[in-house]
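pasting for the record
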Amino acid sequence: MSTSTEQFADVSATTLLRFATAGSVDDGKSTLVGRLLHDSKSVLTDQLEAVEAASIQRGQDAPDLALLTDGLRAEREQGITIDVAYRYFATARRRFILADTPGHVQYTRNMVTGASTAELAVVLVDARNGVVEQTRRHAAVAALLRVPHVVLAVNKMDLVDYAEPVFAAIAEEFTTYASELGVPEITAIPISALAGDNVVEPSANMDWYGGPTVLEHLETVPVSHDLTACHARFPVQYVIRPQTAEHPDYRGYAGQIAAGAFRVGEEITVLPSGRTSTITAIDALGEPVDIAWAPQSVTIRLADDIDISRGDLLAPSGDAPATSQDVEATVCHVADQPLTVGQRVLLKHTTRTVKAIVKEIPSRLTLDDLSQHPEPGQLVANDIGRVKVRTAEPLALDAYADSRRTGSFLLIDPADGTTLAAGMAGESFASAKAVAATEDEEGWDF
């Protein structure tokens, strides 16, 4: 099957949706992704031929579409997904970046990576097994990362005779659980990834379902990429001082605008020092501009020679975040070694890395009933818990609810550079009151 040329016609005029898939082991997630790519005509001829050849070698009569995403040799041999696989495809209505994340419990950390930039998460459930612990964990991660839209794909409906009561019971249980976590929008779709029911084409076996297919929902779900409405933040990545005959006094601060917009003539504050200055010039792609916005990479020049280096943050003086050495946040622990009270770590926030110590672990989330287990003493792999960290230097963190870019951070082992935990500053899950306030705003405002 060759890729349709019409399919990619004028894709520059279409919107982009980043979404992640998650599901327990053998829920058919890789098959769903393969079916989505295959039936939307997003598979090149040589890719399909390679899958067909590999399927024949394994003694299968039909192509195993899961092989379209399981790219590692170990994944193909074991029939599981290990690493996050990114796929890019497009239809006439929208472009997509898909992060296919593993289902095994020990690889839940990979979902944190895949969902951290996603606007939508597809959570798969086996219709025979219903909502299991890993399903609840995936819902919790999606809620914690403030993914605005969640799709519950109840898979393998063909193995339960396409029974509506089975689907309805699973959808009700999951929706209740995810709503308690504060997920603003949940869409349940009954599918059979193997047979293709309700993935791209509507199912003839489930006439009781009148909702969209998975692809229809992906093409029409509202998404917003307007980072210019957020608090303006510019983490400095590099200081440019050529000191050449042509540019003897040039001093520019290069980096990517994390959120908001910056204008020439605007007064800014440098954090954590608190010094102020005025933007005299903004260079983008070597050309001067009057205004720049996220996520452009630019060089900003200031009126005053201030001691600014990598890791400093520029923000409008009237909207600068507070700095603090005490960070309270929710973390997803992703390392094999536990995170313990009193442990010395490095905290990486945007382009800034500082020494820190874990002062307290107030609670660990119990996924079964969403209760908090107080004072666990440590967090182990895949745990979600609250931490209090004291940093050696002040940091300018926003609340994660306000900005996914400047409200997130990593805890790193200083001995070997291993990532220990992914952190979200401020409150963890959205309250029911906060969700009600955003229902008319198409999800959370980042």
